[in-house]
Amino acid sequence: MADLAKAKEQFRFYTRLHLSELTGLRASTLSQLANLIKTVPDSCIYHHTHRFLQQHQYLSPEPPNDFAYWATQVLGEDRLGEELASIDTVQYSTLKELREKIVSTIEKNLEEDKFAKLRFAHSGEEFHFVKSISFVLPTNHIVGDLKEFIEALKNVTLDSLYFHIFEARLRLGRGTNDFSNWIENSLDDKNLAQQIAKLDPYTFTLEDLRKTIIKITEKRIFL
Question: Which domain covers residue 207, as residue numbers?
Fold first, then answer.
């Protein structure tokens, strides 16, 4: 068993409460959709690319995004729908980058398909923009080494795990998940931090993601 390093700074687990709110913005055509995506708050982009994951935490694999679903099911744009669904969210470290990729994918389709501009959603089938509101709350789980980290990770809620993995990296723009950031900067364990950071969280259920991180960390402790 490896000697357990004590963290320079303890790690506190947080959790979040989630609320969805209608913006009143809606699109009937791809052109309208692209223009609105350029200007809506980041919280809208986050909601429509992570809604499925937030609502169905035990399902896997990678969830579809709302833009892909609407393009396919409402407008009949199968090719565009596939391209939007294939956008690898984990490759983008900010919502700005993800937003730009979605817009460029739609605009490319509009340029290449002269009929795309003519397709529109019927009344009641428009794309309604919703924003995701999170209330972040501290938990009582505070850890100072990897053993304490594992024990806490076993007991925190999936909402806490979701916050530290998904929201911290993409929505809060921290570049990586909170666990990797703490392990690298407070425990000086770059190797373990990178192993966790390299996981594609969109291919796991949250419960499986929890188990995987615990397994990786336990292996590090018992080297």
Answer: 11-16+143-221
